[in-house]
Structure formats: C-alpha cells, structure tokens
Specification:
Blueprint: H1 3-32, E1 43-48, E2 56-61, E3 64-73, E4 82-90, E5 98-103, E6 119-121, E7 131-136, H2 144-151, E8 160-166, E9 169-178, H3 181-187, H4 199-217, H5 220-224
Helix pairs in contact: 2-4
Length: 225
C-alpha cells in the first residue's frame, strides 16, 4: 500500500467519523425537541430526560394528569423502525382488573402489557379485527360496550396500536411515524420522519383518554338517570 493510498483511506475514515458524529448530534437535538410544538396544550408541563431515547412529558390537560413517552421500536428483523407515542392518563378507576387491546401483534412489542395478562378473550363484532385482547385476572371482564363507545373511531385508526385500561388509569399507544428509510437501510441511522409531535395528532388522543376514563367513572345511578 502506497503512502498516498494510506493517506486517502485515513482521510476518508476521518470524514466518515465526522459525518457520523454530526448525524448523531442532529438526532439527539431532534429527540430533545420532540414535544416542542405541543407543550401549549398542557398546564404545569414538564419535559425531562427519561433515560430512554426520548424525553418524557408530564402535564395537565382537561383537568387530568398525563404522561407522554415516545418509544423508538427497532427490534423487528428486516423492519424499518417505528416511533410510537405512549400516552398515559393516571387516575383511579373503578374496575376490577386490567384489559389490554393490542392491534396487529407481531410478538416484538416489548413495551406492551399484553404478555403479562392472564387470559385471552374474544371481542364483539363491532371491534376491530387483527387484534389480540387479554384481561387480568382470568375470568374478569371489562365493560366492553362502554369502552367501545367511549373510544370511538380511535381504535379504528391505522396508527392506533394499543389500549390498556387498569385500576390506575388508561394508556394509549399510537404510531407517530417511522425513521428515514434511506439513512436506516444504509447506515442504520435512526433519524425520524416526524421530528415533532403536532397538536393535531395529539389532541384527539388526549380527548379519547378523557372520554374512556369518564365513561368508566359513571356510576350505575348516573346511568339510570
């Protein structure tokens, strides 16, 4: 190998390292700003590092306390990663167990509660297909008609992934977008297609969570009135 060839290789390697660091810095900046466009929806909002790929947002909306955590799913083999938003409304609910609805399961949803459930159940015909529904403890059944009506068209949306109802509140998981395919296939760089969570996407999810929790808190006396 000649000196000129070696110098060219070293120069190319240095150029690649510089480019890679620049891409990683850009990705870090984009992740940190993911909630930049939607914080105005909340009162007492706080965005903090969560130890994950993305920060966590906590805030009040509609009088309720929410937590939002983006989750970058890059577990699937030969699958372009997806960016999911996990939205949790924490409030005590008068239910006797947990119910999980997971759409289009692929057995790689590491963030899902489905695997921890005790019993798989069938849903009525007005619920979506291509799903797996489970409850805990075995034998308990949620008020499915109430949940279906409160969820509305949320669970029919192509980007809807999961609904979890428990005595501690409600969680909704929704697909925000994917990563830039060219960067991922060539360099395995996880640069998102959507770098900001927009209010137009988020507000219907917040409202759906409020509807679901409100429907479960209605007493039998209120239903009869």
């Amino acid at each position: 190998m000649t000196f000129a060839t070696l110098a060219a290789l070293l120069l190319a390697g240095a150029g690649f390292a510089w480019w890679h660091r620049r891409v990683q810095r850009r990705f870090g900046d984009e992740r940190a700003a993911v909630f930049e466009h939607c914080t105005g929806l909340f009162d007492a909002v706080d965005v903090a590092a969560s130890g994950a790929d993305y920060p966590r947002l906590s805030g009040r909306y509609g009088g309720a306390q929410f937590e939002l955590q983006p989750v970058l799913d890059h577990v699937g083999y030969r699958k372009v990663p997806s960016l999911w938003l996990s939205l949790t409304l924490r409030t005590p609910l008068p239910v006797g167990g947990r119910f999980d609805l997971l759409m289009r399961p692929q057995n790689i949803e590491f963030w899902s509660a489905s695997d921890s459930m005790d019993e798989r159940i069938d849903l009525p015909a007005d619920w979506p297909v291509h799903q797996i529904s489970k409850v805990s403890p075995a034998g308990w059944r949620p008020p499915l008609n109430t949940l279906r009506e409160a969820a509305g068209n949320l669970i029919d949306a192509p980007s809807f992934k999961e609904l979890l109802v428990s005595p501690r509140g409600v969680r909704i998981v929704f697909r925000v977008g994917g990563v830039q395919r060219a960067h991922y296939l060539v360099m395995r760089a996880l640069l998102p297609d959507e770098t900001r969570i927009e209010p137009e996407l988020l507000q219907p999810l917040l409202d759906a969570a409020l509807r679901i929790t409100a429907s479960l808190k209605i007493t039998k006396l209120e239903k009869a009135a």
